[in-house]
Structures are given as C-alpha cells and as structure tokens.
Write a structure and sequence with these properties.
Distance between the termini: 24 Å
Strand content: under 5%
Order of helices and strands: HHHHHHHH
Structural class: mainly alpha
Largest sheet: none
Number of helices: 8
Radius of gyration: 15 Å
Length: 147
C-alpha cells in the first residue's frame, strides 16, 4: 500500500496529521505503541487545534525522535537528532511555508478549516517521505549503526 493510501486509511479511522505520521513510522518499524499515538494527538491542529505549528511538521519531528531520541537513563542522546529536526523544519518552511505564508496551521489553512482536504494530505505524505529520506541518509552515512 502506498504512503497516500496508508495516510488516507488512518485519516478515515479518525486520526490526525501528527498521529498519522507517528503511526506510519511505528508500523514501518513493526511496532505499535498506543501511548505514543495518543500523545501525538496533542499536536493535532497546531497544538490542540490552536492553529500553531502544523501537526505534520511536529509529528515528523516526533518520528525522528522515535528513531534518535533518548528513552532510558542508560541511553546516550544521539547528536544526530537536532540537526535532522532542523533539516526537516528548514525543508518544511521551503516546501510549504513559502507556498502558504507560514508553517502554522492557521497560515496553511488561511484560517479556513475547509482547506484541510486540499492541503493537508499532501503535506502529511510529503513530510513522511522527507523523514524517510532523512532516515535513509543517516543510515547510509552510519552503516549498520543502531537508529
């Protein structure tokens, strides 16, 4: 199933942009984590539908954190995480921020929720694919090192 179909299926099941990105990333890893998917709901609609930073972008940052973030006291923080998140933000600004006048949900939707169906699916899939490209780049740079 291609990325757009996966995204649409999750959307039809009632999930939001941030949750969709995290769910797809977990699925790629062969994992499920309902708590992570639930937590990502707080990012939906620009942080609880406040219209702030787009949930596709924040969900993408969470997906990178899923791969590179510290999760236990014993783990060491991976120094690749912040530069990868910064690269994602820069890409998102160039790809969507310029087109829609910003990276906030309100900017992207022009303060009109009826713009969601036309604008959001492409951004979710595009962000997911960018995260996958960043992960592949890190994998090719560092070989078999654990991600």
């Amino acid at each position: 199933m291609d990325d757009l179909m996966r995204m649409l299926k999750l959307k039809q099941q009632g999930f939001y942009c941030s949750q969709i990105l995290v769910s797809m990333g977990l699925d790629d890893l062969g994992k499920t984590n309902l708590d992570v998917v639930r937590a990502a709901r707080g990012l939906a609609g620009g942080l609880g539908f406040a219209g702030e930073t787009c949930g596709a972008l924040t969900g993408g940052a969470c997906l990178l954190g899923l791969h590179f973030g510290k999760g236990t006291v014993e783990e060491k923080e991976d120094p690749r995480l912040d530069p990868m998140v910064q690269a994602l933000v820069s890409w998102f600004k160039d790809e969507y921020g310029q087109q829609y006048g910003g990276i906030r949900c309100n900017d992207i939707l022009a303060n009109d929720p009826s713009n969601m169906p036309a604008r959001c699916p492409g951004m979710v899939v595009g962000t997911y694919q960018k995260v996958q490209a960043l992960l592949a780049e890190a994998d090719s740079e560092f070989g078999d090192q654990e991600l």
